[in-house]
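Give me the fold.
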Amino acid sequence: IGAAAPWLLTLVRILQGLSAGGEFGGAVAIMTEFAPRGRRGLYAAWQSFTVALGLLAGAGIAALLATVLSADALDSWGWRIPFLLALPLGIIALILRLRLEETPSFERIRPEGTSAPVQKASAGETAKAVVLGIARLMGWSAAGYTFLVVLPGYLQSSLGATFQEALV
């Protein structure tokens, strides 16, 4: 599809990022609500930990492909392999998400005859929570992209490292 390919790939990655970001807070809430008392912090930490593992796995797969494939093969078709490897994981995650039941604590506070609990918060409390959430995610994202995107590029362009060396 020619010149449209990078634009479409960028659009798909933006949609992926928005959907993953939208699920992040809900996933932490679900994990903590299902956690036994006294273990909620540990359960909530798994969300960030598994995100970090996923980023490291992605960098590892990229390094492996850069080592195993020639530069021409990587540029022409090899870059598609990580996307194809992620497809079954995405399907599994979607199936799990669609089958997820409500947490026991949610069921306890749900008013009779409604589908969701009624919660009231002031506009100031809501704005503070939103700004704090944005700041935390921006810091996490900046650190992740610095180490996994910017640093390998810097190592190649400024220090003369090969693509494989930069990824490793």
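The mean pLDDT is 85.
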